[in-house]
Amino acid sequence: MKAAFIINDFETMNLEKDTSIFLIKEAQKNNIDTYAFDTSDILVEDSKIKATVNKVSFKANSGYEHSLSEKTIFNLKDFDFVINRLNPPFNKEYLYLTNLLETFGIEAVNPPKALRELNEKLSILNFPDLAPKTIVTASLSEIRNFVKKNVRAVLKPLDGMGGKSIFFLSSEDKNLNVIWENVTKNGKNQVMVQEFVKAAQEGDNRLVFINYKLLPFKLIRIPSAEDFRGNLAVGATSKVCRISKNDEKAAQQIIPFLKQHEVYFAGADMLGDYISELNITSPTCLQEINNYSECNPGDIFWKDLIKLNKSGNKSS
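Now predict its structure.
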C-alpha cells in the first residue's frame, strides 16, 4: 500500500514533535510506503492529477534517521491514501489544491470539501452550547463595546495558527486601536473576539478525534508565566492526561458534526468546558500523547484507515 502526504516543507519540520512525521513512521510500521509533496509539486495533464513526490523512508529502530528518494512523478489516483497535512493559513493556493483534489475525485484525509468549507475558528459557532461569548466583526466600535461589556477578551484572526496574532484585550487597554488597525487591516478583515475564559489559565485542552472517536487521552497545554496563550509554539508547557466526563459530553456534540462533514482526523481545543477552535487542517499533539500514555494514536489512525480502505470507504 502507498500513502502520499501533502506537507509544507519536510526538511524544516521538528521531527521529534511533528504529527506528520509520526504518522509517516507509523504508516511504515503498517507496511505502507510513504511519499511527500507540496502544492507546488502538483501537475495536471491528460485529464489526470499528478505530483512530483519524494519517497520517505525511516530506518527501523534508528529514531528519526531517514532518507528521501529522488523526485518521481505519480498519478495521485495510484495512492491508497492521500493525507493532507498542509498548515494554515487557508490561502488561494490551499483553495486551488482543494478544488483540484475534488475535481479529480481524490479522497483525502481530511476531505477537500471539508477543508474548504470549515474555517477552524468559525466552526465553533456550530456548537452554541460549548462556545464562549463570541462576536465576529471588522468594526472597532463593536469590538470596543464587547470588551467593555466582558471586561477581558481575546481577539484572533480567522486564518491563523500556533497562537499567531492573538491578542488579550481589557477594558482599559490603550492599544486596542492599533491592534484593530493591524489585525483587521483598518476594518477590511473580519476577526473573532471572545470573552476571556478563566479556565484558560489552567491550560488549553486538546481533544483528539480519529475516525469519529475521541481518544482516551488529551494534551493540556499550559501558558507560560509571560504569556496568556496555551500554544506550544509560543512557550507553553504540556502534560498528557486522561479525558474527563465533561470532555466526553463535549465530544457527543462534536462527533456528529465531524461525521456530517466526513472529517476523519480532528482536534478540538477546550478551555474548561468551552470550545475555542476545531482544528481539521493539520491536527497535532499525536507524538506527545503517544510518548506519555499507553495510547498509540498512530496505530489507531492507520488500522482504522486500512479497514475503511478495504471496505471501499477511505475516509468516511
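The mean pLDDT is 93.
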